[in-house]
Amino acid sequence: MTTDFSSLDPRIITRGREFFNSISGESPSVFNKGWWTGKVMDWAMKNEDFKVQMFRFVDVLPYLNTSESLSRHIEEYFATEDSNIPDVLKWGATKTKIGGGLVAKVLNKTIRSNIESMARQFIIGQVSKEAVKGIKKLRKDGFTFVLDLLGEATVSEKESAAYLDGYLEVLTAIQSEVHKWKPLEVSSGDLDWGHAPKVNVAVKPSAFYSQSKPVDMEGTAEGMLERIEPVYRKVMEMGGFMCIDMESLKYKEATVELYKRLRTKYPEYPHLGIVFQAYLKSVDNDVRDLLNWSREKNLPASIRLVKGAYWDYETVMAKQNGWEVPVWTHKPESDMAYERVARMILENSDICHFACASHNIRTISAVLEMATAMGVPEEKYEFQVLYGMAEPVRKGLKNVAKRVRLYCPYGDLLPGMAYLVRRLLENTANESFLKQTFADEADMDRLLENPEVTLRRQLEGKCIVPEANEGLARFQNYPIVDFTIAEERAAYPEAIARLRSSLGKKIPLYINGKDVETSDMLDSYNPANPEEVIGSVCQAGVGEVDDAVEAASKAYLTWRDVSPAERAEVLLKAAQYLKDNIHDLCAVQILEVGKQWEQAQADIGEAIDFMEYYAREMIRLGKPRRMGHAPGEMSHLFYQGKGVAAVIAPWNFPLAISVGMVSAAIVSGCPVVYKPAGISSCVGHGLVKMWKAAGLPDGVFNYCPGRGAVVGDHLVDHPDVAVIAFTGSMEVGLRIQERAAKVQPGQQQCKKVIAEMGGKNATIIDDDADLDEAVLGVLYSAFGFQGQKCSACSRVIVLDAIYDRFVERLTEAAKSVKLGPAENPANYMGPVVDRAAQENVLRYVKIAEEEGQLLVKLEASADLRATGGCYVPLTIVEKIAKDHRIAQEEVFGPILAVMRAGDMDEALDIANSTRFALTGAIYTRSPAHLERAANEFRVGNLYLNKPSVGAMVERHAFGGFKMSGVGSKSGGPDYLLQFLDPRLVCENTIRRGFAPIEEGDDWLS
Amino acid sequence: MTTDFSSLDPRIITRGREFFNSISGESPSVFNKGWWTGKVMDWAMKNEDFKVQMFRFVDVLPYLNTSESLSRHIEEYFATEDSNIPDVLKWGATKTKIGGGLVAKVLNKTIRSNIESMARQFIIGQVSKEAVKGIKKLRKDGFTFVLDLLGEATVSEKESAAYLDGYLEVLTAIQSEVHKWKPLEVSSGDLDWGHAPKVNVAVKPSAFYSQSKPVDMEGTAEGMLERIEPVYRKVMEMGGFMCIDMESLKYKEATVELYKRLRTKYPEYPHLGIVFQAYLKSVDNDVRDLLNWSREKNLPASIRLVKGAYWDYETVMAKQNGWEVPVWTHKPESDMAYERVARMILENSDICHFACASHNIRTISAVLEMATAMGVPEEKYEFQVLYGMAEPVRKGLKNVAKRVRLYCPYGDLLPGMAYLVRRLLENTANESFLKQTFADEADMDRLLENPEVTLRRQLEGKCIVPEANEGLARFQNYPIVDFTIAEERAAYPEAIARLRSSLGKKIPLYINGKDVETSDMLDSYNPANPEEVIGSVCQAGVGEVDDAVEAASKAYLTWRDVSPAERAEVLLKAAQYLKDNIHDLCAVQILEVGKQWEQAQADIGEAIDFMEYYAREMIRLGKPRRMGHAPGEMSHLFYQGKGVAAVIAPWNFPLAISVGMVSAAIVSGCPVVYKPAGISSCVGHGLVKMWKAAGLPDGVFNYCPGRGAVVGDHLVDHPDVAVIAFTGSMEVGLRIQERAAKVQPGQQQCKKVIAEMGGKNATIIDDDADLDEAVLGVLYSAFGFQGQKCSACSRVIVLDAIYDRFVERLTEAAKSVKLGPAENPANYMGPVVDRAAQENVLRYVKIAEEEGQLLVKLEASADLRATGGCYVPLTIVEKIAKDHRIAQEEVFGPILAVMRAGDMDEALDIANSTRFALTGAIYTRSPAHLERAANEFRVGNLYLNKPSVGAMVERHAFGGFKMSGVGSKSGGPDYLLQFLDPRLVCENTIRRGFAPIEEGDDWLS
């Protein structure tokens, strides 16, 4: 069946014109300026700043439970001079203190009720009774419905279960009413029309399974299936229809898989649907695959096609993570894809029912014309619009197509506000068809034109200006691993298997370009299975350290004079080596230190970033800077590497931190003697291979694992060491600083110590925090990689007003996670790094239990513990005061102390009350508290509404002060300076009274 | 007598046209492209780079005594691809190694003889016999002469004496011939014409007195007089004329004074003249003053008016020193001034003879017309042109004016090359009348137009674009003191007298905004007169130090949060206080530590510079920097002051270094406990007054002088001190670093130590160095402020080939200087700072005498020593090897070790052979050696063809590495970072999947 669709265009436009004419003069209620909502929409469309503030305010509103809190937020969000702000808000924002609060109370009530009524406009009911009533009214108007239970973010299995219960409850309520509803088309028997059941629900699968994650596609699909099946059974019992909604891209694959499993499990029941999003560049393939599958399995399908509601999110995430943007970047491209895919579905109408979900009259007209042209039976397609939106469109649709279904959200106003924000955004976006049609009153022909034409016009005159660069592109972080890509998921087990086939080898030292073996050896083992030896690592003695320092000293004499650009080039080659071997490198970390897949990848990615960044930094710093402007002299400041650098690295970011310190030294012109942590010496040996691959000259990098007690002080004391770069515990760091400050006989320079040490990091949960984000953020900060990060959150400081809600959700979320070996991606947390770490953490668990009150002590299963793995329980205690040991001492394990604060003053006081100042986080939606935290939460890296872990090179240049370090920031613009001595050369250019004129001279004006 | 000169213009132009016509088709030999000189001139005018290289090569040529050296320089200067370079040079530059050096030898000979013949073109003879012969020939052609002996730079009294002898010798030679010369106008009796004697010489007064300096105007004038008087007596004996030439502006006042004294001393002898330069903005006043003086004293004068030959030099010096540019910045302004002043002189022809020295036909025509219009007798004016230049002009002049005198340099080719460079520049400058007339063949009318008209045209369309700045102008160094200003010279004795009237006061501590007195006191005395007590300084004990640290700690809590701009504002106010009180502040230094006037002023100026610079730096660093470009997050890096800073200051730059360290801390948000050196605590107390005047809050600055043994360690060990900024000896610096690295009970942060320590600085003298500059540079670096600078030169490494010449000149130069109290500006060197320093230096003088061979041991006079002043001899020893103590240990006094090096390799090896790496200098005119030194002479501050002392803020950001310091640079862009902890705040700006778009986001392309 082929139809020449290009010839359809005139008919589509004609039909579109008729459509417009049929609704002429009507406007969606949301744009009605007589109402508060309409005013707000109007202001939001006129003023981008107000829009941001307004939508953020709407988002936080449900959390503002006291009049004081509401007043404060209104003031913080809206007390500006901007005349575009609705009077009632402005007045409310500035006058809340008048009249002893009475005025404020009245105003607050007005504002709250206005916004709540805005939300109600889009929501069919807050309780099931209301929903049923609303449905009845819709049906009376000739529309049918699809019901959606609000509340997407479930952070625990308890919440997922509650969500399931909510569905069952509303279905039961409908069940008792449905028999009273007459079909919309009498001819259809018990169905509304064709084969459309009267009952129709939509489910968002990720909400049913709190542990959904792309890396664990199988577990996610199974987890979703387990919870959604009861809903589906109930729907089937009622003879209804269930549609599986599509959420953000990361759940797409699991969602399709869920559909297939459910469809296969109940092959006889036809009323199951799925949604595809036309804004995804993959939509053509995705829909084609599903249609092929349906045909192959002979399992007819139903597809709702939407444009997609997560465009901002998908774009931002892709940009933040370094992924290719998965959505079309021009709106007409989505419209084109929609028409293309709609045609594909219609062409397969024999095995697929089509639900056309769009408010765009061009799109609707195109679907109608294509269906007509292809002779698709009417019962094979229907139209869907959102409840409370685009009333003229639904009216027009009813006129022409009859089969119109309204998508009806139902549920609490709290999740309802999030829904409201999304709808407001949709209505006010510049590219919104609704805004263009009803608010901007754009030209009808433009609105109806073929999106291909629109796109061509938009692209015309747009020339892509390549970013300015001097040979080297601007620094970009290495992409976060994208587990929606099946190949990525497959690569890990393969790499681990490869590694397993060659474990336990002897690992030599590497000094002056040669492997050196020693008799003293140390085994490195898998913490999940201490029987499994990763490698037997030769241990340097004092003699080998001396050899290494000598080799480095010799190399210094030439390496310091290699040009910055050439040194940078070596780093870029090394970075390429890491990119080329990333999965194998991940495998070593997964087995040697128990890193989860994505954490391992992030570690390698960070190592790459360090080299890509420091290479560029050295090129920047390597350009001599002219100082002053005096004519007759030419003065230049430039830098020289200080000398031999001893790098003493930790095991927790075994490649990233090692490579960071080592490459900074090397690119600065300082040859390195590298002592990896004993626990991660196999990972550390990766640097040998890396520098060899990069072609680094002999002696510039020397790999020198060794027992701290034997060679640690010796290396630090060595008179020929100029720089010591250390990351590790405070105790060791301070010892190094003290020893390094003592000048040894023959020492030629003052030693520079770069020390990054511990943290006792806090996260503050304000009483207006978005708990959906805060709970998951704290959980990840505290227990990611078993809490073995200097940046890990070990104290969560919760404001009184939100304490119970937060703690309850956090506790349940923690109890929902899985413990087990890192190599299984289903596990959230694995064993700690070794037996000593296990003993230390268990000691602190005991202290925590003594000092506070246990909330969670989640143990690994008895089976796992029986394997001898270094497991410790995921532990959360509350009732911790700021002078408790568990609130002051760094544990480096999965123990979280919950602390209660009366107000923000107290919270900040607690947060700042340790010797450390490394990282911190705050979750708040109060603009004033964000600003206060930025100023007064005094740590090296503070994150606002973000977890305190996962610092990325450059973006989150990392490092703390006080006893957390010496105030440098790795991955930041001042880092390399620590390895460099500045030199200045000033030439007097006057000879015989004559000075050549140079650019930049302050000569004559 | 008034004449309407505007009406003269048409006549001037007419006369000019006639002049041009009379010489039509002729061209100066220097532009004759058939000759080598003409070719070179042509290339130089076409290519600015070649011009610079060529003239520099000419300058160095006399030093290239071996074929190898000549070949190497030709290659370094000319081995480029530039097709504009004369073939013979290019060929010589690239092919010198061909043919076993034979080709090179031939080429070298050609090049050398070509350049020497260029020089000979402008020089009448190298020996007196030649000169006399040349003069005879000139007279035959109808020209008369003024003879000038080349060799301006005399660095010692011996050289000055030799210069005088040279004059006497040539005069004697002329004396034996002059009777044979017939007068040019037979009517004139024994004179050439009018009252013009046949013998005429010019003298450059500064060359006759090596200790000339503006600050010692009286001494300079007397010194010049003493030496020139014998010449004048000889001239008078011969019935000749002597003209006192005008050199650079700094000698102007002394030169005029010299003229007046000589003229007054021999009132009856009329044949004495003086020169004025029309390019000086002061020329009108200067000439008017002299004419008035002549009339008043009834001592007729003779003035030669020139445009001026030091335009580049005067401009560059003014710009480098922060002075108003003293010369006109547009060429027509000089031409206008010339005509204006010429008129003034002609108006006074009754008491002043006028020598019009110009090659500009417009100028000449104007003078002729003015003189004619005013009826000035012909014998009252004459014309002068340079020998070997502008032959057509002299020919034309002879036609119209007859009385034409040629300015004839005579003497060795070595100083002759310097003269040649100046002439070449004059001929090739774009604004040169000769170039425009004979090389560019500019339009005659343009060349003859009234310079006022030319200026108007040049200024048209030029709009002054003010420099972009954000409220604050770009940093500029505070001007170097300009002692040509009489008020400046007068201000010092006045300020010293004021200070003397109130010496010996009790000086309290200053803690938390209050004066605090102690019972322990220490007197500070004048090193030139230890009886003279400057102040009795209260000495802090441990208790006062604790109080000060406590006050600072308290102040920290608020001061750190004061905005960077506000903190900067306080520094700017403090800088203003210093500017307003500069002479009084200088006086304290002059008496308390024995600083010479200009050194004291430079110290205050540097203090001002530090504050002006750090204020701007903090504003720069105070702006949070966005990190990364990810949409959906906003990440900012900013800085926070580390905490309380202990500042431990030295006495040698008692205000500058104190203010530098203190103000850096304060502007960074770190309150200060300041311990000045005991020796300079009165200067240090100036900071109390300064910060009070600037309105600094209490507790942010605390003045805490104290005995090192009592409070030094205590302050360093204090747990509440976060930063220690120290400048002083290596021993103390290392002790501080070691102690500070030990964490004390209660200590909250790792201490940061900023230590600037010693130096053992070398200056290399290459075999092609310009010794005129090198000798004076080394002398100043080694003995300025008695060598008591960490930047002082204490080793001079001289290449074999130039060793004898350099050492001879250096020795004589050193022997020529005066020793005595710093308050007398005639003295080059004063006493060292105190009795202990005196004893230390005397110990090292003994060591130097033992290790090497004494060249100079210049003692203060017995009278001075009898006063008990802390005098030590100015000492120079040679035959010092690199392992000698005097080559390795810092003395901090006026002892200079001379070391011999076979070649540049050895010189660099010696230079780098100490534990220190602070400053260094090299004098060389080899481009390759300049580059080598820049790379391989590894010190913090390296100066090429400049003294190693006198670093200026920003331009010469100062500090060394190895044992000279920790690798920071005061007055440089990284300095403040040391007082700051970086903080990063990253906000997740996504809410509900929606992120506001920020500028700089890496959103969609």
TrEMBL record, chains A, B:
Source taxon at top rank = Bacteria
Please provide the record's keywords in A-Z order: NAD, Oxidoreductase
Query: Which residues does the Swiss-Prot or TrEMBL record annotate as the active site?
Result: 756, 790
Proline utilization A N-terminal domain residues = 9-122
| Limits of the Aldehyde dehydrogenase domain | 520-983
Q: Which GO terms describe its cellular component?
A: cytoplasmic side of plasma membrane
**Listed InterPro entries:** Ald_DH/histidinol_DH, Ald_DH_C, Ald_DH_CS_CYS, Ald_DH_CS_GLU, Ald_DH_N, Aldehyde_DH_dom, Bifunct_PutA, FAD-linked_oxidoreductase-like
Name all Proline dehydrogenase domain ranges: 132-436
Q: Which GO terms describe its molecular function?
A: DNA-binding transcription factor activity; L-glutamate gamma-semialdehyde dehydrogenase activity; proline dehydrogenase activity
Q: Give the pathway annotation.
A: Amino-acid degradation; L-proline degradation into L-glutamate; L-glutamate from L-proline: step 2/2
EC number(s) in its UniProt entry?
Answer: 1.2.1.88
Q: Which family does it belong to?
A: Belongs to the aldehyde dehydrogenase family. RocA subfamily.
Protein name from the UniProt record? L-glutamate gamma-semialdehyde dehydrogenase
